[in-house]
Amino acid sequence: MERKWWHGKTAYQIYPKSFCDSDGDGIGDLQGIISKLDYLQELGVEIVWLSPVYRSPLVDQGYDISDYYSIDPRFGSMADMDELIARAQEHGISIVMDLVVNHCSDEHEWFRRACQNPEGPYGRFFYIRDWHEGEPLPCNWRSYFGGPCWDLLPGHTDKIYFHAFHKRQPDLNWENPALRQEIYKMINWWLQKGLGGFRIDAIINIKKLLPFRDFPADRDDGLCAIQTMLARAEGVKDFLQELVRETFRRYDAFTVGEVFDEKPEDLPQIIGENGFFSSMFDFSQKLLGQDRRGWYLCRRPTAEEYKKAAFAAQAKAANIGFYSNIIENHDQPRGVSHYLPQGERSDAAKKLLGGLNFLLRGLPFLYQGQEIGMENRDDWTLAEFDDIGTLDQYRVALRAGCRPEQALAALAHYSRDNARTPFQWDGSEGAGFSAGTPWMPLHPNYRQLNLAGQRGRPDSVYEFYRRLIALRRSPDYAETLVYGETLPWLSEQHNLMAYLRRGERTLLVAGNFQAEEQDMLLPGPVRALLLNNLESFSQNGESVHLLPWQLLVLELEE
Ligand code: TEU
After folding, report:
1. What's the 477 CA to ligand 1 centre distance in angstroms?
2. Which residue in 469, 360, 464, 370 sits closest to 421, CA to CA?
3. CATH numbers and ranges of domains, the chain
4. What residues are annotated to the active site?
């Protein structure tokens, strides 16, 4: 396999609005990020992915871009962005931006012009159709944030346009070569600035099944999930091939795709040698327990399910390429609140979950706050939710007959807003995030759980993550942890998640994913104990005795 500059790096996702606010308006910003570069370097990360900071009405928090060539004033200016890229480089960090090109904002100039003249060149940048009151829509697909994918084109009563997400996020028409050229030009403009690459949003959605048509309804709203269409749409690969040839490949850029609903046989083309992307997220754990009918029917995965999904994904990518591994991102509940059993939020359990995920083969991505063990809020009130997707799920649950408190409980657990509460830097008023009123309420636990209380404390979650990153970078173990294979160990043993990483050396990662003790047989003699999330280590001959939530990383004799 050809070695790439990004293979051995640990990545870190910043959600700019909630990371660090330098000017006291309650919204995180680029200068705030710049002020934390020393911190990111100390943690050991070398790639930083920024969720969108382009100009945007922030209807979907920046995933609705109204100008790809400017920074939203709430986040700063282009000069700040240039400064961030340059200063990050000095800290050994590559900046990766979010690339949102399935759709733009309804405030983008292209869409405004399309509304003015739907028959003109910009009309063909979108999917616009004639329609008259009372007629069926061109298709019955349900948008991701609820309701049909079609809305009246602003300023018209006889034309509608397509949106897979919110109605203020009109889909761009990738069938139109002129649109594609505009996108490539923009991407190259950014890459010329010295950007490390892109995280690529919702990319499989760029290919629609045309002509539009209905599918059987899967809820009583008469609509069908958009995934039904995606599973049948052919041709996304042609778009991706051209995109990559015209842009990323020319710069050796790092790219990570947000790819859902890919066809299994397509993995080699997506992330294999000369694939479309450097990597893609492994969402198989996130998908556990999900129910497309709504969050009110979702259930949390067990440790056994988590392990099986992780191992299956490792096997799938083994001879192909690198997944990017996560326990959370800005669209998901906090990993420690989701994958650990209810009420189990000890530091040991948090380290176990983080370590088991981090040491898998692939690129580790941390999400801001994960490194200090930030948690879901338990005490949400309905009025505090901001996310459009969350508010839709409330309506879905009520319509299905849930009581308001049941609906609220589902929201409190699954809402993306759990990931969007501000970073807890310290225990002062505003948590060191902002001198003003944070745009989103702080998690009430910020006085006890914050970076200042963990930095330099050897048994903290933060210092554990630092050790994980350091281990993956260390000259002795990097080769094995980056390129070595993953071999599950005793995968049938209940609530034990253990695997070998075998390359130059042989390492055993063993986690007792439960609140009870258990013994584990060793695959061979131990050469060294590299990492332990607890103090004791007890080996009895060919077995080790694992305490509740204990995680060990052992080097074995060859
Ligand atoms: O997400 C795409 C996507 O498919 C998710 O929104 C998913 O449907 C959701 O998490 C429910 O599980 C990307 C971004 O990550 C997300 O923040 C944006 O809202 C979305 O695209 C639209 O740009």
Report:
1. 35
2. 370
3. 11-102+177-383+419-461 (3.20.20.80), 109-162 (3.90.400.10), 485-556 (2.60.40.1180)
4. 201, 258
**Other beta carbons less than 10 A from residue 48's beta carbon:** 23
For the entire predicted model, the pTM comes to: 0.97
Q: Could you tell me how many residues make up the chain?
A: 558
- Per the structure block, which two tokens stand in for 352? 């176990």
Q: How much distance in Å is there from the Cα of 156 to the middle of ligand 1? A: 29
Contacts of 90 (CB under 8 A, 6+ apart): none
Angle 109-58-427 (CA atoms, 0-180°, nearest 5)?
155
Longest dimension (CA), the chain: 78
Helix (H) or strand (E) holding 480: helix 478-483
- Ligand 1 site, residue 202, Cβ cutoff 6 A: yes
Most ligand 1 atoms within 8 A of CB, residue of 66, 100, 201 to mutate: 201
CA angle 541, 544, 550 (to 5 degrees): 165
Please write the tens of the pLDDT for every residue from 53-92.
999 999 999 999 999 999 999 999 999 999 999 999 999 9
557 burial type by CB count under 10 A (0-12 exposed, 13-18 middle, 19+ buried):
exposed
